[in-house]
Amino acid sequence: MSNTNKTKIPWEPRPEGSKDIMWRYSKNPIIGRYSIPTSNSIFNSAVVPFKDGFAGVFRCDNKAVQMNIFAGFSKDAINWEINHEPIEMKAGNTEMIESDYKYDPRVTWIEDRYWITWCNGYHGPTIGIAYTFDFKEFFQCENAFLPFNRNGVLFPEKINGKYAMLSRPSDNGHTPFGDIYISYSPDMKYWGEHRCVMKVSPFEDSAWQCTKIGAGSVPIRTKDGWLMFYHGVINTCNGFRYSMGVALLDLEDPSKVLYRSKPYLLAPAETYEMQGDVPNVVFPCAAIKDDEGHIAVYYGAADTSVGVAFCQQDELIEWLKNNSL
Amino acid sequence: MSNTNKTKIPWEPRPEGSKDIMWRYSKNPIIGRYSIPTSNSIFNSAVVPFKDGFAGVFRCDNKAVQMNIFAGFSKDAINWEINHEPIEMKAGNTEMIESDYKYDPRVTWIEDRYWITWCNGYHGPTIGIAYTFDFKEFFQCENAFLPFNRNGVLFPEKINGKYAMLSRPSDNGHTPFGDIYISYSPDMKYWGEHRCVMKVSPFEDSAWQCTKIGAGSVPIRTKDGWLMFYHGVINTCNGFRYSMGVALLDLEDPSKVLYRSKPYLLAPAETYEMQGDVPNVVFPCAAIKDDEGHIAVYYGAADTSVGVAFCQQDELIEWLKNNSL
Amino acid sequence: MSNTNKTKIPWEPRPEGSKDIMWRYSKNPIIGRYSIPTSNSIFNSAVVPFKDGFAGVFRCDNKAVQMNIFAGFSKDAINWEINHEPIEMKAGNTEMIESDYKYDPRVTWIEDRYWITWCNGYHGPTIGIAYTFDFKEFFQCENAFLPFNRNGVLFPEKINGKYAMLSRPSDNGHTPFGDIYISYSPDMKYWGEHRCVMKVSPFEDSAWQCTKIGAGSVPIRTKDGWLMFYHGVINTCNGFRYSMGVALLDLEDPSKVLYRSKPYLLAPAETYEMQGDVPNVVFPCAAIKDDEGHIAVYYGAADTSVGVAFCQQDELIEWLKNNSL
Amino acid sequence: MSNTNKTKIPWEPRPEGSKDIMWRYSKNPIIGRYSIPTSNSIFNSAVVPFKDGFAGVFRCDNKAVQMNIFAGFSKDAINWEINHEPIEMKAGNTEMIESDYKYDPRVTWIEDRYWITWCNGYHGPTIGIAYTFDFKEFFQCENAFLPFNRNGVLFPEKINGKYAMLSRPSDNGHTPFGDIYISYSPDMKYWGEHRCVMKVSPFEDSAWQCTKIGAGSVPIRTKDGWLMFYHGVINTCNGFRYSMGVALLDLEDPSKVLYRSKPYLLAPAETYEMQGDVPNVVFPCAAIKDDEGHIAVYYGAADTSVGVAFCQQDELIEWLKNNSL
Amino acid sequence: MSNTNKTKIPWEPRPEGSKDIMWRYSKNPIIGRYSIPTSNSIFNSAVVPFKDGFAGVFRCDNKAVQMNIFAGFSKDAINWEINHEPIEMKAGNTEMIESDYKYDPRVTWIEDRYWITWCNGYHGPTIGIAYTFDFKEFFQCENAFLPFNRNGVLFPEKINGKYAMLSRPSDNGHTPFGDIYISYSPDMKYWGEHRCVMKVSPFEDSAWQCTKIGAGSVPIRTKDGWLMFYHGVINTCNGFRYSMGVALLDLEDPSKVLYRSKPYLLAPAETYEMQGDVPNVVFPCAAIKDDEGHIAVYYGAADTSVGVAFCQQDELIEWLKNNSL
Amino acid sequence: MSNTNKTKIPWEPRPEGSKDIMWRYSKNPIIGRYSIPTSNSIFNSAVVPFKDGFAGVFRCDNKAVQMNIFAGFSKDAINWEINHEPIEMKAGNTEMIESDYKYDPRVTWIEDRYWITWCNGYHGPTIGIAYTFDFKEFFQCENAFLPFNRNGVLFPEKINGKYAMLSRPSDNGHTPFGDIYISYSPDMKYWGEHRCVMKVSPFEDSAWQCTKIGAGSVPIRTKDGWLMFYHGVINTCNGFRYSMGVALLDLEDPSKVLYRSKPYLLAPAETYEMQGDVPNVVFPCAAIKDDEGHIAVYYGAADTSVGVAFCQQDELIEWLKNNSL
Q1: Res. C1 pLDDT band, cuts 50 70 90
Q2: I need a surface site. Which of A124, C223, D51, D107 has the fewest CB within 10 A?
Q3: What's the complex ipTM?
């Protein structure tokens, strides 16, 4: 079981006349801000193949603007039933499962279970970890790191015998900097071997990713490397603008960046991306793929709703090799 | 005469299918940005029952973006005739009626006249006070406080024999903090007995009101307490977002908060609230009520236009008691 | 040859019912963000009469959000063919033609050739200068000034025997201040006689231009003085808002401001101006005029696309004299 | 009883060779940082003639760096016995005598008792008021103003039948701005008639007072006006530098500044003023005077200790008239 | 072998007349800024008993103000021979021993070797770890954490079978916040079980430690708990002021704070602490103890030199219990 | 006539035991803060050989902390007679000699006269230029550049037929950045050919000059290149610290840096450098040299007084070549 699905993932061919490498689903956003009764907004969420359909973990801020994560289910990965109650955690590898808030989840299958990571409030943001077998019971583990951290994303398999996680060390506010690091763990409890993977680009070379970058989707194993969608941020005079790029990391040593997109793949240009609680945000949190190389990327739009975009793996990788920073 | 009107206030029933406690007027915004010839924007304005209809004091920024307040009149409180010239003040209880600018008015009837408060420019923002009997002649009084202050809102009757005013001490810029205080005056000239009423909430508990809060509408006397709509602000990475909440204050000692909404009542979600001179602002300045407990709240939208939203008093209070911070 | 054209410039009469001095082209934006294959956005661009039609220099940020300038051509000044490759510079009066980036071009004819100025990246933003005879070959000259500077705009003829340039000294970020200065040069290589021309206005007098101002279009010679469209900025709690004003400078000594608009001429109010990569921006970079006094102003909208607005010179000047700061 | 003393105030003649209008006591600092067992620092304190000697209220921060005020007594106003326990307040004209901290006291006799003002912590800094008859029992009254305020200084007599207080509206941090205002009260409970008295000077004219200013000593009645020592602040690249100036305010309407020193009177130049918990601070809080026109000014040095400086009233006023801003 | 020495540690009795719990060595600073030829400053350094004397690791910034750590040796722990070349690291439990800079070392003996921690430059500050057997050869291990972190301090023995380290998560500049956390490791390579230990105090309660706090010395095992000296910071209007406090942590679970000093133990008051490259800094990095309970604390003074202060363990603990926050 | 003097410049040999390349004059500071009646501080000043002695231009801030420059004269370049009145400027190559303030002068002889540059207040800081033949009459010329600029330093002869000036583009406050540029002029009126000369160093390589750098003394022609003393700044948590370095620039093209000191030459370490109006400042503004290669450097100390330091040219250049960044 993995991010690649035998079953039918959402798909639309590239719109006529378009030469874009990535294109939006025509019925975006697929999940609106008020899709469950208590929600103020639903965005920055993750989905995985599950049984004969799909499961997901969704960031639903409620109308007190408290941030929490909710399980959801879907047959087609477009139409979702999201639980009305947030995920309740049981003790996993620790009794210390404090959590002031939870947001920006990612999900992946590793070996025998689904692992969820998210931004966990423990005296500030850090990376929370939990596992589930069924998306009903969830078991929270030790936080991976000290505060302050965000955008923790696990690899979907062990690398050299260890769990591997990307993350973006942060500060305790609207962090105006941010690079992507990798860390390893023998046991999902103790983490080390921290390496810098990717840093922001010089303004002159690729300004959309010059302020901060963070891992987005769980990396997809390809013969060319780990394929990962990430977000990049530029600090305009009217605030941060979040766009999406893609990178290929070395299969054996993913701290080595093989290719990294110089142009963005997708940037805020539709009203639902440019208007909302935080305007001008495209924020990928998951990607699923079928056997034909179709990829559907799930992204938060304007911190308000969830959109989907498509690309074709081979095309994407070729483009990436030709457009690398 | 009071905020409660025998005559017909604007009203629309809750839209079908909605479970919201507060809902928008279907023809919002009721006052557009260019509704008088000189205006750049009309917003954050206050209305009261007046004679057989309604009067109001409107913030109309002109095309030099100078801020001033204008009188207006309406039969139905929806369609407004706003004067093309700003209110000209005469001396009230002082000759010192300097005013670099005037904005964000509130209006209420107390005993024998209408009182207007607003943010008055006197070496920075402070609280201006004036009275009128007829919305033609206005008499400006001493500023209530030293700079810097905003969102001064009078109670519609004396409390323990004194005038009472809510306000939000500020700084001289885009204040990134702000709590609600109450002060008392025997004579509308000298103010004291300052007490803290409500502070911003912890981010974890109710983030929409974690950066600053300010009184909105003139409180409405109910058997359960003073019912007051207020604004709360969260500082997102792309700027301030203003939403509306509601509180009940003790009738005898309004520095005691009986209930205060943990979820917001109304947050920016319509294009006219999310797009404009200052995106993502819902800013209540007045509420009128009829004998059936219908309440119409007037709010500024995106610092650009005026909207109306409705709720039913009994429902609201019950909801508030069940959703208190 | 000059900014005044014998041939037909774009024109639409004032919309019925409108009393505005300046009005938008009904089919705005005339150039969309993706009008060339590589572009993320096209905005803040300049046009001039050229041969039997028009030529222009366009700011096209690519999808890596690298900023560069591109030549383009049009018969009607509305429908543009923009080159897919940026302008490649040859050495003009210097071999030192380094340029980390180029943005916000202006263009004017002086004596025997077209001169282009832009914001040139040389250890930070400063004013780049180049000339062309044909919009095919371009010759880059010495930067006019030390960093940090933006919005360099040449007068369309020598003044007292010298080239004259307006500019706005800046810092190396999202400069929160900015006034307009004039400098002179005998030879387009050495610059001096720097004079302050216009400063930001007091907040109380004209808030839309209280944070920073910068020259927009190449000044148009009129019998009343040099007519120049400029931008003004107000710092709202949700970021900078850019509007357009107009000034008349003394013909002999353009450091003397004869009139300067207290109200803005055009401020962000259409969706394409309020929504985009940088919301709430109206940024004029060029103005062309015909023999009947019709003026078409070209402006960047929301750092995303190009719009056109119209006014009538006589009307405008009369209005300006009556609405001067 | 008043700030003018029949008895002997501290005095040293101007040092030989000096032409300074104000000169330091040769044995400064008169009170060291550890003068009571718990103190970390003793500074910014006020003294008055009392019985056959002097009493004072002293800011002693303890070694937890909690700020509080302590009574003290002296025969000669140089050698002080400061109580080891802070002043304990009883209810004066209110039961609400909350105080998170107390600092920077001033003291004056009005009519029948001594009044103390200080910066009182009530949800941020504001002006606390208390009275005493004997410096043993102290009675705390209503805070004069809403937060945020500092440097509240009473006039030593009623003006036009009302109590009058200078203060400096502030923000909730290390306020980078600050002007002096006056407010009036009929009863020491309700305050109004707020007027701006003195603002910071333009940098070019008098830079030592260009960032913020605040009232220092209780004004001394002279035939030429109210004589008041105040502090002015310049923001250097290495922090705030506090110096001392002097002003004469109109006797009838003290919101009118008759003269105000352009040069400072005393600026940090001795090691005990340049080195300490906050380097480069000279902060006057009291001035006493004898019948010969000798004036002794008490000032905090480097937020660490207390110094005294001398001047001769006639000389001072003449100098002030010749050196006014 | 441990921080407790059978041999003679530096010691001076409390000065006559003093009631201080901690007092300075009379010949401070013991190490001046230019004590090795290349140094600009020597401060924030750590010492341990070694063989029949003492060894230390010293922060010596050179005259290019590059930060590095140097070994040194002493017979009496007062007079030091510091190597003229910085420590050269060999690979310990990793080949990745990158280090842009090294500063603020701590040293302790655990089981069979000496462990050094310091602030290590790896894409920003994080915690470096190394071991040595002889202070000649040093073996650098994996960084404990992701950036950004400072003030990593090991416990001198395993706790519940794991290595334990205190640290202070930071940002990438002059961090204006900071609390103390504990983390555990089975192997000095992977770290987890992160717990918050101590946070800054409320300003009203103990202002000297209200901005940030960080572990100082390696904790000393006592029957009452782990005794640890730490630094606390207050942000004055003229910069950070660093003082020293002390805490007792639970022996079994050191994330539990048993006692923590409300007053500081030592704050900048001598010229060598108030004047230097960073004025007003007292920064403890080591403490050694003899069998009589004498404790000598080593601290950096003004980021310029090294001082020593003394206390008596029993007295200290009793005082701490009586003066706990 | 030049910076090299046949007559006796101040000189002291290196103190015994010292290995420093630069050492201080034993009687520093040579000019105290109160050396003229009106002065608050005298610092950042420049001297040149003049007639049979020396002349200088001195920055004397008066007690209103207004900044101005004053002429002075000396036989021995140690004991100075500074005029009590500031320099009064006559019109040089322009009538526009506005000046809100003048500070940080430099002086050099070129061809037939002495040229003075300084930081001139014209709508913010820029570079003022004047000439004198006799230090009695001074003729002010056009400002070299637009605001904002500081530290303009002329070369003592034309280079390739043009005047050459170093400067440091700035912003309008306590600029937190700053690199050294060169510009050329044919006539001291129009300036161009701006080139970047030296940028701040990476923090890891040489932190004392990682925040900003600025030219100090007028460059001295040597066979190895233009020898120039400059200042470098590090931003500590308690403010800026200014130190002195030295560079050699190419004789033909001084935009080429041949050598640049990695360690500083002199950094604040004496009380008069660490304590004063702005602590921790060493700021060179002039250097004079005799035929034996003795060099005396004049520097401002703590923005308060003037110090002198010595070095030997040959030694210095050799050291520089061995210690270059």
Answers
A1: very low
A2: C223
A3: 0.95
